[in-house]
What we know:
Layout: E1 2-6, H1 10-22, H2 24-37, E2 46-53, E3 56-63, E4 66-71, H3 74-86, E5 90-92, H4 109-116
Parallel strand pairs: 1-4, 2-5
Antiparallel strand pairs: 2-3, 3-4
Helix pairs in contact: 1-2, 2-4
Amino acid sequence: xxxxxxxxxxxxxxYFRSILQHDAERFYRLSRAFERAQxxxxxxxxxWALTRFSGQAYLxxxxxxxxxxxxxxxxxxxxxxxxxxxxHCYLDCSVVTSNAAAAQNLMPxxxxxxxxx
Length: 117
């Protein structure tokens, strides 16, 4: 599996790179938790998912054993979120929400625990 982060965020890519380099076990658990939360990116084939994380939206595209992650421009964010919600491909990693209808798209507790370390 190869992941290409095209998100232009040194902080974000550095955060995950640090976990991979210093705590491979945690990185593996984090990957498994994210995969369970985003079944559209599951093993093999093609798929896509939209994740809201750290105040930004990221589009993940899977082609066979490669995943490409792109930061979504602000002007496209709302439209892509609506499409992802409709197709059950959206994960909101926000910690707080006041919208009970969006609960199905919230980050699972296991993923939150792994992200915070």
